[in-house]
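Intended use. Records like the one below are meant for learning the mapping from a protein sequence to its folded structure. Do not use them to infer anything beyond what is encoded.
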Amino acid sequence: MNLQSMKRKAVPLHAEMAEVLRHQIMSGELPPGARLPALRELTKELGVSRMTVLQAMNTLEDEGLIEKHSGRGTFVRAVQIPDRVSLQMRAEISEIYAMVDQLEVSVRKGDATIEKSRDGRYFRCMRRIHARGGKPFCQADIQLDDQVYERAPDRFKQEIVVAVLRDLGVDIANARQKITIAYADFGLAKALGIKVNSAVFRVYREFFDKHGVLIYSAKLLYPCDKLEFEIEFSTGDPA
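Structure written out for the chain above:
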């Protein structure tokens, strides 16, 4: 990975790097007490100089976001994370199916690993890229109940999960989705072919059965310049 090729024009490397870490800290993605990678790890991973990393870390330390401990490393400090105003809307699950159908994306197949949840259940976990017009359009991090996955493993590997769940007639009793704005870190920028710190839509989606048991969850990340959400409201007026 080379940060130089992914940074925004006219933004110094150390400022770009500091901004990525700042977003991660202020969003809670890097929680208080989290240990940051060592200096040599960051220089190697990002293809930047030692001085660039030091400048970025000094900036974050001056802002009170991190603290350095000699011999132990650099850690995230406890900070006040800004509150979000949550605006809630209700819709039928058919709206999600319709939205997915409109996207017309293809799936770049990724590996499916098995992970055991805290309650002893097994999930298939997949990270993959959805493409549109041959170009990366979305990064998807998916968890799917293993028993459901085994009903159509070949389809789940290479098709949109929501569409396959619908076609299989999987009973979904409850579903929810949350959309926020986030910013591309180093890995996401590389995966989607966008600049570091570009704005992205972050979509969290969860499906549950009639017992309230999680069947499917996904974190979907879309570049903000490639997607928009349009809502049409019914007024109840026959005219």
